[in-house]
C-alpha cells in the first residue's frame, strides 16, 4: 500500500447557465459560499451517490462552513456530471481527471482542489484550505485488481502495461 498516492478531487460548477443566477457570478469558492449563505437550500450539489467520497466531501464542506445546500445523490459520477452540465444542479465535487475536459473547454469552472496541496496536474487551481475551509481535505484513489490466483507473470505484464500508460503525456 506504500505506493498508493491519493489524488485530490475538484469542486466545480457549470459556467454558462442563464437559468441559475448564482452560477453566473460564481468565480470562486468564496462566491459559491456567499451565494449559498444568501439563499439557504436554494443551491443543489450533485454527488456520485450516498456513502462515496464526493457526497461526504460536500457534507464536510457544509459542516465546516455553515452553508446549507441541497444534496442530490446520483448513481455514479457520470449522471451527476450530466445533470450539472444540463443545469439541474449547481455544483459538485469529483475527481480532476473526470472534469478536466469540461474545465479545459470552459463548460465548467474548477473552483478549488480538495487535497492538502495543489496538484501538479492542475497547479493553477487553489486548494480548499487556501480559499475558505481551513481544515478541509478530501482525496481519492483508483486501484487495479486481478482475481485471486492470477499468475505472477500476468500480474507483471499488467503492471508494465499500466505503468507505460501512466507515463504518457495524455494520462500524466
From TrEMBL:
Note the Gene3D superfamilies from the entry: Bordetella uptake gene, domain 1, Periplasmic binding protein-like II
Q: Which residues fall in a compositionally biased region of kind Basic and acidic residues?
A: 13-23
Ranges for the region named Disordered are 1-27, 45-64
- What family is reported? Belongs to the UPF0065 (bug) family.
Q: What is this protein called?
A: Tripartite tricarboxylate transporter substrate-binding protein
Amino acid at each position: 500500500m506504500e505506493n498508493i498516492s491519493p489524488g485530490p478531487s475538484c469542486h466545480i460548477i457549470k459556467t454558462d447557465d442563464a437559468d441559475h443566477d448564482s452560477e453566473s457570478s460564481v468565480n470562486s469558492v468564496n462566491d459559491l459560499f456567499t451565494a449559498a449563505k444568501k439563499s439557504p437550500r436554494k443551491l443543489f450539489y450533485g454527488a456520485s451517490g450516498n456513502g462515496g467520497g464526493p457526497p461526504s466531501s460536500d457534507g464536510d464542506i457544509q459542516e465546516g462552513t455553515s452553508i446549507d445546500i441541497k444534496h442530490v445523490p446520483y448513481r455514479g459520477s457520470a449522471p451527476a456530471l450530466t445533470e450539472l452540465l444540463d443545469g439541474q444542479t449547481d455544483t459538485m465535487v469529483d475527481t480532476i481527471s473526470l472534469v478536466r475536459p469540461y474545465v479545459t473547454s470552459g463548460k465548467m469552472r474548477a473552483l478549488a482542489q480538495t487535497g492538502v496541496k495543489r496538484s501538479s496536474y492542475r497547479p493553477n487551481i487553489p486548494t480548499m484550505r487556501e480559499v475558505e475551509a481551513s481544515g478541509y481535505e478530501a482525496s481519492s484513489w483508483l486501484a487495479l485488481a486481478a482475481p485471486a490466483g492470477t499468475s505472477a507473470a500476468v500480474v507483471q505484464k499488467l503492471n508494465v502495461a499500466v505503468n507505460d500508460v501512466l507515463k504518457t503525456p495524455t494520462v500524466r
